[in-house]
What does this fold into?
Amino acid sequence: LFDRIAVVQAERPLLRQFAAVLIAVGTGALLTACSPYVYSDSVQTLNSKMHAIDSSYQGNAQKIVAERQLTDRIKWVSGRTALKLGPGCAIDPDTTAEACTLTSTAAKKPALVAVETAIKPAPKPKSAPQVCKPPPVPMSSPQAQSNPAVKELTPTQLIMRLDNYAAALAAVTKAQDRADFDNAAARVSAAVATLAGPYGPPAKAGSSALLWLVGQDLDHRRLEELRNATETACQPVHDLSDALGAILKNQRGDRLDGLFELMRSKILALHDLRTTPHVTDAAYAAAIDDVQATVDAYETVRGTDPKGAAQALSNAHDALILAVRNNDGQIDALINATQVFAQSTDAMAAAAATPSAKK
Amino acid sequence: VNQPPTVDNIENACNTALAALGKAITQIEAEADQAKPGPHRDQLEMRSEDLMDERRAIRAAANKAILSLPGVIAAAAILDRMSGDMMATAQELPNATGSLGKVTALLSLGQQFNDIIAKARST
It folds into this structure.
């Protein structure tokens, strides 16, 4: 027995180290009591149910329109009805709530209202201006311009700046590492749980807390980096989102103008075909379908909202800033906010890269 | 002191010009729809196309003005520089595996202590 005690005394430095571990574990246990990991499952469920209801409503509305078009088409082909573009097919479609439709020149029934798809002119929403703190370096100062030789950007360069920034944010949060860490922590905890003897259970609880502490340290450093980065990027992201929104709106305008011209050309061709002798029903129906396809493409482009997408991007970044600014270690919430921002930049890139409408 | 225009200023000016052209196009095309096929209708259609081209030119000019705004160029430069810095910092941040290694080493000390106590008791 005395030999064993002597061995234990020889291990005193080890004991001191373990005491330090126990202190850390104790602190960790206290912090764990106010664990920052918040999972809002119920909010997510409500959100997904609302999405389901919304898409069901939208789906039915589209089917009603499609069925009405089919009925009209049968009548138009057999009666060689004179057709025209409805008043919703305007050169500046955002000034009317009516949907662009192909209709009979004698039609008296009210045109379909593009309530579900058309962009309603609305005052430009602005995010809370107080989100951005005054930058330490004025934006227009020479220091702020890393490349003063740049006199003009291209839209692609603008999108790339935002995209790279979103990628850098994702790299700092390293969501995958966090998930790996949690998995590894669970494995180590399980391994420690197999400790034999009466000290096993407390050791297990303590090791979980210690792992959590290390995780917090890891997250704290990432949090600091995120905090600095998002605060500095606040105004630049606002400025670039505004610029990008305006440019994408112009791009949408160009496409609508092009489709408008195409619709007019096709409706004139349809008029000619209607009065041409010996045109089969199939050929005439194909010409109607051709016009209808262009009308559909026009309505699709009309339903896009590039300014709204740009504002959503700016708002997502503001939300991220506030989440980081007020965050006390909720790395999961930050990862979510970062992902929302990254998705917004993806949506912007997709909006800019939308292929030409079917003509 | 002349302040550079803002994105909003450029957009508003662009919208005004586009609306004026749009109104003219609508009137010309309404006239073309009523005209019989022939040189007059062709002329109206050509005029409408010219106005459409003018709308495209106005949008292109607006884009150019927005993309060369000093504030936009400076904002892009800040974001560009920051993204590079952040990527570099992300590389330097400790990875989870390294930290886990340290914890495992600490835990092994605890396990050794347990073993020693357990052995001492059993003796």
About this structure: The two ends of chain A are 93 Å apart (CA to CA). The first strand of chain A starts at residue 83 and ends at 85.
